[in-house]
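Hi R.,

Here's the chain you asked about this morning:
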Amino acid sequence: MHKKFSRRWLMALTLAAAVPWPAAAQAPAFPTRPIQLVVAAPAGGPSDTLARMLAEDMSKQLRQPIVIENKPGGSGTIAADAVARAAPDGYTIMLSWIGNATSQALVPKQNFDINRDFVHITEVVEGSNVLIANPSTGLRTLKDMLAYAKANPGQLTYASSGNGSSGHLAMEMLKQRAGVSLLHVPYRGGAPALNDLLAGQVQVMFINQDAVLPYLRVGKLVALAITSAQRNVLLPDLPTVAESGFPGYEATAWAGLSAPKGTPASVIDTLHAAALKAMAGSFKSRQEAIGSVVVGSTPADYQDFVRRETQKWTSVIKTAGIRPD
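And here is the predicted structure, written out as tokens:
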């Protein structure tokens, strides 16, 4: 009797072990609480506005709030360092941008590497720089500008929003490709640089297209070329730098989403899917209205893109000997 009971008890335990635990006992699906999106820019600026626009639509997909935390300064290194040290659970992510690629060469002794210490989720948008001139220069094309620069080395002045800014690097790459010399006049921000260009204090500059569209339409500035790989729909008659004699030239300002290295693949997939759905909605039309291109790449493609951008701009910076302000 005792042996029979023991055998029955053993069989019961074996059957119980073979039955899966109820779904309620499994780990809850991501996300179950608010997500923090770190932005390397102050509140109210273009990057902050972009992040809030994307976060609003992604929150609807994830059914959890996405809270913006602004961490400006250090060419983006303060924000990136904080995210690199965060728990790799998907609840802290970053609006990655071109500054993360350029700062690898501009800012010495960083505690992180943008390619080694992050999982890049998706590229969100790209925005082109437009090469513009004050009408008083008489310049009408990129060919005109380069011909003048070659005939008058170091005499043509170009403005930028600061050392290492996207406009500065776009011009340095063009100078290296064309073999010309221009005089750099750095400003602390795009607005004062643009104001001096309008006033004729400087002659040319690369600047984000959305900042200059109103001035181009009324003839206060002249557009010479655009830095994107293809022409922009808002400026269909403006040739690219690439088609103006420099094949392969591309210098776009871009932004995307990234997470700390070690974030589970399932979490990355969830964030990626939510971002793509958000980008396909009103976000897309609102960005295209200012000339931005909405991308929506795969994690693998964005990982490769960030690596290529880091290599490209590191080469430009080292060749030009650029140092941060």
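One quick note: Confidence is low (pLDDT under 50) at residues 1-6, 9-25.

Cheers,
M.
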